[in-house]
Design goal:
- The chain has 693 residues and is α/β, with parallel strands linked by helices.
- It has 28 helices and 19 strands.
- It has 3 domains: 258 residues, 2-enoyl-CoA Hydratase, Chain A, domain 1; 176 residues, Rossmann fold, CATH 3.40.50; 209 residues, N-(1-d-carboxylethyl)-l-norvaline Dehydrogenase, domain 2 (Orthogonal Bundle), CATH 1.10.1040.
- The strands form 4 sheets. The protein has an 8-stranded mixed β-sheet, sandwiched between helices.
- A hairpin with an 8-residue loop joins strand 15 and strand 16.
- Helix 12 crosses helix 14.
- The structure holds 3-hydroxybutanoyl-coenzyme A and 1,4-dihydronicotinamide adenine dinucleotide.
- 3-hydroxybutanoyl-coenzyme A binds next to strand 5 and helix 4.
Amino acid sequence: MTAEYQVHGQTAVITLQNPPVNGLGFSTRQGIVAGVTRALDDDAIKAIVITGAGKAFSGGADIREFNKPAATAAPNLLNVIAVLEASSKPIVAAMHSVAMGGGLELAMGCHFRVVQSGTQIALPEVKLGILPGAGGTQRLPRLIGVEPALNMIVSGSTVPAEKLAKTALFDEIVETDVVKAALAFAERAVASNLPLKKARDIKIKFATAEGFFQFARNMVAAAAKNYPAPLKCVDAVEASVTKPFDEGMRIEREAFTYLVQTTESKALRHAFFGERAASKIPDIPEDTPTRPIRSAAVIGAGTMGGGIAMNFANAGIPVTVLEMKSEALEKGLAVVRKNYENSMKKGKLTPEKFAERVGLIKGSLAYQDIRDADIVIEAVFEDLAVKEQVFKQLDEVMRSGAILASNTSTLDVDKIAAFTRRPEDVIGTHFFSPANVMKLLEVVRGKKTGKDVLATVMQLSKKIKKTGVVSGVCDGFIGNRMIEQYSRQAGFLLEEGALPQQVDKAVERFGFAMGPFRMGDLAGNDVGWYIRKRRYVEKPNIVYSKTADLLCELGRFGQKTGAGWYDYKPGDRTAYPSEVVNEMIIAHSKTLGVTRRKISDDEIVERLVFALVNEGAHILEEGIALRASDIDMVYLTGYGFPIYRGGPMFYADTVGLPNVILAMHRYARQRHGDAWKPAPLLEKLAAEGKTFN
Ligand code: 3HC
Ligand code: NAI
């Protein structure tokens, strides 16, 4: 049993011992009940303190047990809390560090709560697609008030304990040594015979409940889109006001049981673990020594360079941006400054933070100024000859031990490494645009990249608040290599009968943040054009729809030229369907001799998403990605794939791999059918009845 029992004078201390965060798994729950029972049976014990060992009071239910028998095996968390509440001896929770989800619910089932200041308090279940399932929706409103409780439950956000200091959630807030304080509190409770408080007995008075919940429901429904959990949170909290406690508990339980089985919740949990799994690299132990990153440099102050520099400044790391010409440097730094100013105007940045961040970013035109940086990230033009020149320079000037990274999106990192005499120090850091906003960082491991270099960059990715995902070297790495197949299908769909707005709508209805054509207009259609032109030479066998080239030949590069797949009005980013483009598409089908047909939204989604899945399977098989969930993380954090679908590989698992293959066979019989040869790994897993994840 993973809870320890100790006696301090007349008080029993039960300490949860389930690393890493004292998740309330089966054996921990058993341990708590056994501890309480033992204390109740012992006449010498007058009170009980419950706390957690290590770095958390408790991070909540053990997520690893969800959908397994252990999750519901008795004693479940409701049983445990019932035992606490019914105890005839006072129970004091000694809360510190983190009290979340079931951990907070456990504490709310105690008679008293002593908390250490700084403790992170949350009911984050909604982020896992569920709602608090052990009384959280009924007890929190009673303890801190309906509105603040609803906000916490619907958003899942974390609140520091001090912010709740004046509520009935806490009996005492202390700066240090919470267990000592809880022991003293327990002694006082016994000595003064304090009545044993039960949160369930608190009566909620809320005169304007009906209007309030109607308003809340409207707001939440609009924001939640395809998530069922947030609305269920509103229902349950409403029940805490309008129904007796036990009825509220029943409503909460019913919603929990329903939600925990939904694909959305499974997908969100997959993403939670996927994010953590991505930082684990099989041949690099967690204790691998890393290199300190105290200062950084960025080469190139263009679209990417400025954003990359902001990441360092945001993390408090001084960074020097190097350009060839002062005009380019000034322009780049002005964009950075403007970005920070906008954040300040929106109230997201205080004037002090603004000054601090701007102050951390310096500009330079001389390599000598960056020689002592611990890491340098190159973000110059996507041209191997330019990269060669830059890396040779870096090799000359940078101090030994500095990490030399490239932000290239398509070039061979091994070739770039070979421009230097220290290929072990070279690595790819592929940021996504806008680099100061997008969560994804593809970390490209070259053949010779040092293990400590990789470990350092993965650690750095956390420090700058990115999701680092390791990719092997290949054209396009994980994300762009897959998106190419998706874009090819999008192009073929235009030739066969769809128009950009139909394709975008179908994909957006599936949940993508943006369809491929709106995306192209945002990123610049010329970028893909440039890559295709290279491909026509390097890989003449790959077939692309010519539609995108025709569009670029019209000068329609997207929002930046005021016209792309869609028309735009000055100062307005709304995409208006374009007659010119649609006519061009229809005329092109005619030139090809293709009879346009009505294409269903289902076909559109399947062709785009399964194209991702098939390429993902190749990537997995080749070892470019370490695991299927890494591919999912790339798509969830860098490409706007809907999180409640868990990423392309997880989505394929939920559809069923044999079904994916069946669909692929169907498309193989259509135009450009040779794109639909299932990857061997996909076929193998489907045949064995297995899944990617
Ligand atoms: N169950 C099992 N494992 C958990 C866990 C949980 N509830 N929460 C975190 N972990 C694991 C992580 O998977 C990770 O494992 P790893 O080291 O093997 O990769 C490890 O703990 C550390 O996690 P983090 O990297 O996230 O560490 P941090 O220190 O940055 O954050 C934390 C700690 C704030 C607790 C964060 O992990 C977190 O937010 N966890 C999720 C908490 C949560 O959602 N709780 C609700 C659970 S559902 C519930 O309680 C249902 C109930 O209402 C019935
Ligand atoms: P950009 O054209 O906006 O900026 C490049 C900058 O590098 C320019 O300011 C230029 O003056 C400067 N530069 C060129 N040669 C230089 C040299 N020798 N020394 C110093 N500065 C030099 O390009 P962008 O879009 O920022 O791309 C940079 C890199 O990032 C490319 O490798 C690109 O493939 C990659 N990338 C781009 C993404 C995007 O969405 N734009 C996304 C991910 C990666």
